[in-house]
Design brief:
InterPro entries: AAA+_ATPase (IPR003593), ABC_transporter-like_ATP-bd (IPR003439), ABC_transporter-like_CS (IPR017871), ABC_transpr_LolD-like (IPR015854), MacB-like_ATP-bd (IPR017911), P-loop_NTPase (IPR027417). The chain has 237 residues and is of the alpha/beta class. The protein has one domain: 3-Layer(aba) Sandwich (Rossmann fold). It contains 8 helices and 10 strands. The strands form 2 sheets. Strands 6-7-8-3-9-10 form a 6-stranded mixed β-sheet. A 4-stranded antiparallel β-sheet has the order 2-1-4-5, with helices on one face. It starts with a helix and ends with a strand. 40% of the residues are buried.
């Protein structure tokens, strides 16, 4: 790759959303969740998406993550048009390029912390030795090296979300999508999770899109995008 190509990649946004629309239902009962949303997520940054309940945040996150398909418009991730992919293509993209962190943690109760972190790599067919080394590295990164053998029920909410962050990083994604990752945590634990996300964006060289309604957590973001009634209200930063 030439120096010119490297420079072009560095300034190209990780996520490009153009005139994105999503409607549910039909006729008089149609609900327009997104009404022509356009914005970008810059490479190597943590972008916070804010908005009241019903503003369309989760719908937008699902579309950016390839979990849903839009009624109209496009989503590009690292130069790939998600809206042009079939289901198998979106599945491969989610597995290889995106890490998800959910409000409810989403851990498998019967597996240990280490086993939960290793699940995405098992699905990708990563060799056992390489997988185990990556799991150790990630649990240390999120401060849970000593809790590798504990199951979710033996961990606090904050610790479970740290495991979820480690799992999201397992396959070295280009983008982390976190939908209200602190919603079930107390304020101090929530701040620690947001600081962790801020730290891993820097240390792992990845990009993050985080939906939150907490003003204190937004202060830790590089940029804030507001969604209001299915439209972008403002972008700051």
């Amino acid at each position: 790759m030439t120096q010119q190509q490297v420079s072009a990649t560095a300034v190209t946004p990780m996520v490009v959303v153009r005139d994105l629309r999503r409607s549910f239902g039909s006729g008089a009962r149609t609900v327009h969740a997104l009404r022509g949303v356009s914005f970008e997520v810059r490479r190597g940054e943590l972008t916070a998406l804010k908005g009241k309940s019903g503003s369309g945040k989760t719908t937008l996150m699902n579309l950016v993550g390839g979990l849903d398909t839009p009624t109209g418009g496009t989503v590009e991730l690292d130069g790939t048009d998600l809206t042009g992919l079939d289901e198998s293509g979106r599945l491969a993209l989610r597995r290889d390029r995106i890490g998800f962190v959910f409000q409810s943690f989403g851990l498998i109760p019967v597996l240990t912390a280490a086993e939960n972190v290793g699940v995405p790599m098992r699905m990708r067919g990563v060799p056992a030795k390489q997988r185990e080394e990556r799991v150790r590295t990630l649990l240390a990164l999120v401060g849970l090296a000593e809790h590798a053998g504990q199951r979710p029920g033996e961990l606090s909410g904050g610790q479970q979300q740290r495991v979820a962050v480690a799992r999201a990083l397992a396959n070295e994604p280009a983008l982390i999508i976190a939908d209200e990752p602190t919603g079930q945590l107390d304020s101090e634990t929530g701040r620690s999770i947001m600081r962790l996300l801020r730290a891993v964006v820097r240390s792992e060289g990845i990009t993050a899109l985080v939906a939150t309604h907490d003003p204190e957590l937004m202060e830790l973001a590089d940029r804030v995008v507001e969604l209001r009634d299915g439209r972008i209200a403002e972008a700051a930063g």
